[in-house]
Batch of 2 targets.
Target 1
Amino acid sequence: MEPYEQQLPSYAPSPYGSARSISINLINQSKRPLDTEIPLYETNKERDKYESLSELYSIIIAINCLEKSYVKDTLGNNLNDYTNAIIRLLNQYNVILKDDDIRSEFKNLEGFCTRFNIDCPLAKKRIQVGIPATIEHAVSMSTNNSNDVNQSTSSFNDMNRNGDARDNTGSNNGVGNNFPNSNGDLVQLERSTAGKHLSGSPRYSARAVAEATGSFITVMDAVKLNYRTKEQLHPLLSDLVTSINRVLNGFEFEGRSKLINWLIKLNNLDINESLSDDESREFLFDLDNAYKGFYTKLE
């Protein structure tokens, strides 16, 4: 033996140990080369499952980012883009969960977020509600805007009275109620038409009103035909609320809050749950009242 070997402590590894030979044997016995990628799945079904779970993960993150942008008011005037993006992401989320295998692996939103360490409270709230914040929260008609319109109408009426006085006295160089158009030419402005423009009455798109009315009829017919499940009713009611929002731009009307509550209730139903007979009758009653409130708002 060499002198230095006798000086090594008893727990020190021997330079002539078998660790290297064991590693070489394991490498030689390996079924795969060590430079090849180890897949996460063995079959196409497993691949589709993991890809769907990754899509759900990315959808939750994307919704949370959009919600933060909405809360921080960094979207500016792009609220329509926010609304369309949230609706599209929620639809994708629901479509993925229609697969039985994915739903059994996903289980529930809270468990999925805990499992993959996702901290997205805004996204979880939005998914539970099932509609964008721009549709969920109605806007009350501003009294300041009404006052501004009334002041504008009053000013215009004063202008008309002054014009009448000038016409009667022959002053104002014969101009009277002439106003310059876009080309700079003086044209006669009809008082009745101007009064209508400044009366504060909103203009509604005939096409949007027709779509909203058709959506009302579709949902009510579906309830009468005993549609009870989330899969049957939630898309129809979501389209109805969205079409109403296009007409009224989120303004409140009688019965709107009931529609939002039903939309949230349907969104939180399990896949095997359905509305009872009493709930269906109540839903149909609220739909009828909401339709009357919507029609009254248009008058």
Target 2
Amino acid sequence: MYTSGTTGEPKGVLISNESIITLLAGVKRLFESVNEKLFEKDVYLSYLPLAHSFDRVIEETFIWHGASIGFWRGDVKLLIEDLGELKPTIFCAVPRVLDRVYSGLTETCAGTFVSLPNELEMLGTVGPPVPNVDSCLESVPEMGYDALASTPRGEICIKGDTLFSGYYKREDLTKEVPVDGWFHTGDIGEWQPNGSMKIIDRKKNIFKLSQGEYVAVENLENIFSQVPSIESIWVYGNSFEAFLVAVVTPSKQALEHWAEENGISMDFNSLCEDSRAKSYILEELSKIGKEKKLKGFEFIKAVHLDPVPFDMERDLITPTYKKKRPQLLKYYQ
């Protein structure tokens, strides 16, 4: 299976049958430990691409238990109707579908941690690790994360038979991972008192500005995405500049409402080119930045408004709606 290509060209990941069976067995054991299991009457709605390891593992779990799988019609606008028709008992999602759900890495066979049913105190976490997978945190000093602190935080590392065998026809990349048998995920996690893991940051998407400050860009995008007038945002910076810039797809309804209130009469595309609209969006970004107590260098200093959302047609996002940062840079530079 291939990675999504968010950090460059998609890589072919060699996943053995043993990896898949090990993961399925681990999930089964975890659910049994809390008296939960799948039944034949359970129904799963499959709408993710079949080339996505997350969906494939879930489907194989359902097949193992003799449960049912229904497939959507391939149109996002009809997804609600598909839900009503199939009435799934289990519904799985990835970012953009449910912003608060984190998907798994292809290299770890899509799953290492599993949220437990009906455990409300685990909301906002990815749950505890499955029984047959080893996991640990490694400190990331440059980001201020200490795996040995009273609240352990650091890069999540995985070890076990669920790991991939290597990258297809890329021995150079295969030699880089794992390190001492541990696969470094690039996710920054925080152990919770109840044994679950909370993902709080992303190591792979950090960079240094010219003044030497490190920026965790995904964390900033998650914060700025909370602005009601913003549909989507891509934040960019590099080591040659001292500030951040962003490409924003504004909410059409919110921007047109703002324009009407301010006596500005023009269509949505024209609004996105208007300097007053850009100033308005920058003000909204600054407001939430102050609310969240961001550092000065984490504020956006310039913004470009694109009326067209990031899409697969321009190769800016993956089929599961994750940003392809190298392609975004090439397109907007």
